[in-house]
Amino acid sequence: MGTTQLETVPEPKYWHLKTVLSEALDQDFAVGEVLPNERELAARFGVARATLRQALEQLELEGRLQRRRGVGTTVAPPRVGVAVGGAQHGWPAEGIDGWESVDAAETLPPAAVLGLLGTSADQPVHAVRRTRFSHGQAVAAELLYVPAGSIPGLSAIDAPAGPARARAVLRELQRLALEGQDRSVELGSARADDAKDLDRLPGAPVLVVTTRYFTAAGTAAVSVATYRADTCRLTFGDTGEVEVTPAHRAAS
Question: What are phi and psi of 52, to 5 degrees?
Fold first, then answer.
């Protein structure tokens, strides 16, 4: 990396620095290589460390860099295309598109999910935790919320806990006639549980995909899936439509 003079650049310093760093990543660094520490980079480019951090955060958001526990900041590989199901995908299922069940438990859903489900605040739901893998790497963590009324045939005796319980919930969903689904995507920050599952630092940028599944009786389940923003680019199904609505964060 060479040095550059930033004082006369009319755009924000961190933005120009981001461009310079991006060019250096293409020319001077290999995928997976660790960047010099912040002090060295700031001195090399003649900027404050706060400016450098802004540039690095933007590059991480764009998927050019990764922050790894115990390693530091590394050059990210190209994003992996991950399909986010169209209407033809149906109910969530074990083993489809790399999803693996982790656990299931009864819990009270967070307020945002409660609003999507339309259930009462004191009514527990089944919360199924799943992880999605691509090329051996965890790329998404999901919580699937299913009201007990959606799957009345589920027995606690058959599968009391763990992955077996999660698979039992998914099997019961398959018995329902799926009428449709809607989906939203927004930028978020990794929470502690998701960050651990995805080998990310808490607060790292993520893409949050919220899906509602409908039967003739109404909303039968809500999925909140957190995707790694640094390694994933989401691809959609057959409609290609994008709807812009006021932001509504469904907490996981």
Answer: -60, -45
- Give kind and range of the element (H or E) at residue 13: helix 13-28
Q: Is the dihedral of CA 208, 213, 218, 224 positive or negative?
A: negative
The one-letter amino acid at 39: R
Interhelix angle 49-61/38-45, rounded to 10 degrees, is 110
Asked if 73 and 34 touch (Cβ cutoff 8 Å), the reply is: yes
Per-residue pLDDT of the chain (252 residues; tens, 9 = 90+): 555 555 554 678 888 898 888 888 888 888 888 999 889 988 888 889 999 999 998 888 777 888 777 778 888 877 666 667 644 468 998 888 889 999 999 999 999 999 999 988 888 999 999 999 987 888 899 999 999 999 998 876 667 778 999 999 999 999 999 999 998 888 888 888 888 888 887 888 888 999 999 999 999 999 999 998 877 778 776 554 434 343 333 444
> Contact at 8 Å (CB) between 101 and 170?
yes
* Superfamily per CATH, domain 80-235: Chorismate lyase-like (3.40.1410.10)
Q: Which of 129, 89, 131, 85 is nearest to 106 (CA)?
A: 129
Nearest of 197, 25, 208 to residue 101 by alpha carbon:
197
**Cβ neighbours of residue 20 closer than 8 Å, sequence gap 6 or more:** 4, 45
The CATH code of domain 13-75 reads 1.10.10.10
Using CA atoms, how far apart are residues 146 and 229, in angstroms rounded to an integer? 26
